[in-house]
Automatic annotation (TrEMBL):
Designated name of the protein: Costars domain-containing protein
Cited Gene3D superfamilies: Costar domain
One record GO biological process: regulation of actin filament-based process
Domain Costars: 1-79
């Protein structure tokens, strides 16, 4: 799976596990993503996929590196899709 495919899968998983917001974005905590069995089976390196998605402005979250346990309560926001 290439990076673009992984970022696309990540958006699908955030929509599945997260809560939709009034602006069309989705929010989920890092711990929810990290501890989900389906995500564990999809992503070899969840943190790396999150960093790639953040670099592409697909998601936003505080900090650079998220660590399991320490950052479980960090909110990850899937930005709303741009209008065409």
């Amino acid at each position: 799976m290439n990076v673009e495919e992984e970022v696309q899968r990540l958006t699908e998983e955030i929509k599945r596990l997260g809560a939709v917001q009034t602006d069309g974005s989705y929010k989920v905590t890092f711990g929810t993503l990290f501890n989900d069995d389906q995500c564990a089976n999809i992503f070899e390196a969840l943190v790396g996929t999150l960093r790639a998605a953040k670099k592409r402005k697909v998601v936003t979250y505080d900090g650079e590196l998220l660590l399991q346990g320490v950052h479980d309560n960090v909110q990850i926001t899937l930005n709303p899709a741009p209008a065409n």
